[in-house]
Amino acid sequence: MGDTVSPLTANSIGHAKGNIVLDGDAQTNQAIIFNQVPSAGGNANLFTDGATREVELSSGMAVGFEIHLIALSSVGDASFRRYEGAIKNIGGTPSLIGYTEFIVAEDVANMIKITITAVAGVILRVNVLDNGVTTGPINVSAFIRWTQVIF
User: Fold this and answer.
1) Domain ranges of the chain
2) What are the tens digits of pLDDT across the range 5-32?
3) Got the DSSP string for 55-118?
4) Rg (CA), the chain
5) Which H/E stretch holds residue 42?
6) Which of 16, 57, 59, 127 could be 27's S-S partner, Cβ–Cβ 3.0 to 4.6 Å?
């Protein structure tokens, strides 16, 4: 959307007034990230293609993100959580400013544990851990939306 906008991450949709190239420019992106988490203590990162592509963030920007995450175990236990936070990438050094977790609903308490990190290579990584309190594996899917501004 917009005159010349392009998504910043593979398999995502971008929204902006135009290209995000000048100081103060902003753009919003959204994507679905997903994977299957192995059972009983296993963990997995979530990807835009389900296998290798993570959320990529460009250098020189601050990003606010929102994640809606749903998990479903092989025996039907489910969890819905929401996350809001911020990350920045200044000079090629990404860092997590922080995030808040909202457990909206879950069949089994502490069914999963989510870790959101900023990693080298300019990536916002979402990792899901099966806490072993339900029978796995667990299918996990999330809608992620992020808005960035450059300097």
Assistant:
1) 29-150
2) 445 555 555 545 556 565 556 677 888 9
3) EE--SSEEEEEEEEEEEEETTS-EEEEEEEEEEEEETTEEEEEEEEEEEEEESSTT-EEEEEEE
4) 16
5) none
6) 16
pLDDT tens-place string over residues 79-101? 999 999 999 988 888 899 999 99
The 10 Å CB-count burial string (b at 16+, else e) for 35-66 is: bebeeeeebbbbbbeeeebbbbbeeebbbebe
Q: Is 26 helix (H, G, I), strand (E, B) or coil?
A: strand
Distance between CA atoms of residues 1 and 80, nearest Å: 29
At 27, list the tokens: 């753009």
Given this structure, which CATH class describes domain 29-150? Answer: mainly beta
Q: Which of 140, 94, 137, 101 is nearest to 117 (CA)?
A: 94
Look up tokens 């069949």; give the residue: 107
Contact between residue 29 and residue 145 where contact means Cβ atoms under 8 Å apart: yes
